[in-house]
Amino acid sequence: MIKRIGTILLVGVLGAGIAVGAASAAEETQAQKPAPKPAKVENVGDPVVDVSLPAHDGKSARLAQLVGKKGKSVVIWAQSACGSCRNELGRLRELKKKFPDVNFVVVMVDVGGREIAGKLIKKYGITDIATVLYDTEFKTSELFNVFVTPAVLIFKDGKLAVRLVNLNPRKDFVGNALATL
To answer: Are residues 15 and 85 in the same domain?
Structure first.
C-alpha cells in the first residue's frame, strides 16, 4: 500500500514537473519570437505607415498624422548631397503656389544629420511650405520602399496614389501627377 502511494505521488510530481516545464518552454518560445514587422507601403492603395521622426522644429512628428488625413499629401525623400534632390526642393515653393491645398512633407535622409541638411532647408526656405523630418537612421527606407533619392510618394486620403523615383530634373513629374489626381 505504501509502495502504491509512493508510486502515485511520484507520478503526480513528475506530471506536475512536466506541466510546469512545458509551460516554461512555451513562455520562452513566445519571448523569443520577434515582434511582428510593421506593414510596408509598396503598392498603390497601401495606407501610410505610422512612424515617428524628429522634426526640424526639434519636436517629433508622426508621419501618419501628417499624411493620413483627407486630401493630397506629397512626401519627398531627399539628401543634401543629391543634385536632383536640390532641384525638387527648389520646386516646392512653386508647387505650393500651384497646389495650395496639398500637404508637403520632406524627409531628409542625410547621414550627416540635421546640421548638414538644415543648411539646405534654410537655403530654400522649406519650413515655410513643408513639414521637415529627419531620418538619419533610415527607418523609413524599408517601410516605404524608398532606396533612391529623390523619391516622391503622393498620398490621397492617406493611401499611396503615385510613386516617383529617379526624377528627371528638367520635368515637373510631381506637378503633373498632382494635376491628374
So the answer is: no
Residues 84 and 131 occupy one common structural domain? yes
Buried b / exposed e over 64-94, threshold 16 CB at 10 Å, is: eebbbeeebbbbbbbbbebebbbebbebbbe
Report the Cα–Cα distance between both ends of the chain, in Å, rounded. Answer: 87
Q: Is residue 83 part of a domain?
A: yes
3-state secondary structure of 104: strand
For residue 67, being part of any structural domain is answered with yes
The parts of the chain modelled with pLDDT lower than 50 are 4-26, 29, 35
pLDDT at 27: 52
Host H or E run for residue 161:
strand 159-165
Domain count, the chain: 2
Angle between helices 83-98 and 173-180 (to 10 degrees): 40
Domain at 97, CATH number? 3.40.30.10
60 DSSP β-pair partners = 54
DSSP 11-58: HHHHHHHHHHHHHHHHHHHHHHSPPPPPP---STTPBPPP-EEEBTTS
Please tell me the predicted confidence (pLDDT) of residue 12: 44
- Give the structural domain span for 18: 1-33
